[in-house]
Amino acid sequence: MPRFAANLSMLFIELPLERRFEAAKKAGFDAVELLFPYELPAHALKSLLADQDLALVLINTPAGDWAKGERGFAALPDQIETFRTGFERALTTAQTCNATHIHVMAGLANSPAAHTVFIENLIWAAALAPDQSLTIEPINPIDMPNYFLNSFDQAATILAEVNASNLSLQFDTYHAHRITGDVPCAWKQFAPLIHHIQIAGYPGRHEPLGGEINYPAFFAQLDNDHYSGWVSGEYNPKGQTLDGLQWINN
Fold it and tell me: Residues 33, 120, 137, 212: which is the catalytic one?
């Protein structure tokens, strides 16, 4: 069975953020991810993790003002300094809290220069933090229109161009299903590039139970392929988080 983590930006949100760490530990998780940890000082986040003996497996680079539609800056030609300042902030948090991965958010961009800028920023980030694992994640264009990175073939091309040993693919099964329609096939094709997995049910992006993605079969596939990374529940619970955690034992 894979190692499961809880995304505390989406799970246990019936509790204040500071109490979600204890709730995750009591529910049986040994690791968590936090998409945007910047509302907490890094030292405070480190203490919350240490108090519950939890590993932090992933954070995102700052997205900007989400309410205004900002979704990261790494592929925005006119926001290079914004991206690099934000990345340095993410790196400080990751190093303080020993975060396994930093997900580099590309942002909303479709200009011809976006690809070049994304490559240049990824090369810069990978060189700045050679001991820090970085990921990029394709996000489906239905849920997030105009997000620059929106296919797995595109992501594979970018990884090959950057050619950095500390940069890999983040595989979100919900997005993979919306992009490809076939999670097992996408996993089989891109598994060598994947270092982190996120899961959610489809449709609805609720608990990974039932629906169109066969999670028991997918977890068995991960075991058969000797995947050793984390699998994080990143979904919107239908009700109280604890009431929907049966998927852990699928």
Answer: 137
- Give the torsion sign (CA, 234, 236, 242, 246): negative
137 flagged as catalytic: yes
Strand, coil or helix: what is 65? coil
Helix, strand, or coil (residue 74): coil
- The catalytically annotated residue of 18, 22, 120, 234 is 234
Alpha-carbon span 116 to 94, nearest angstrom: 26
For the chain, the residue count is 250
Rounded to an integer, what distance in angstroms lies between the CA atom of residue 213 and that of residue 191?
Answer: 17
Structure tokens at 250: 């699928």
Tell me how far the alpha carbon of residue 99 is from its chain's centroid.
Answer: 12
Q: How far apart are CA 49 and CA 34, in angstroms?
A: 11
DSSP, collapsed to helix, strand or coil, labels residue 49 as helix
> Which segments of the chain are extended strands (E)?
3-7, 31-33, 55-60, 101-103, 133-136, 167-172, 194-199, 230-233
DSSP character at residue 189 = H
Q: For 205-248, how does the pLDDT look when each residue is reduced to its tens digit (9 = 90+)?
A: 999 998 999 999 999 999 999 999 999 999 999 999 999 999 99
- Are the C-beta atoms of residues 223 and 198 closer than 8 Å to each other? no
Q: What's this model's pTM, rounded to 2 decimal places?
A: 0.97
- DSSP reduced 3-state for 72: strand
Tens of pLDDT, residues 176-212: 999 999 999 999 999 999 999 999 999 999 999 989 9
Amino acid at 184: P
Q: Which of 22, 82, 15, 31 is nearest to 234 (CA)?
A: 31
* Catalytic residue list contains 234: yes
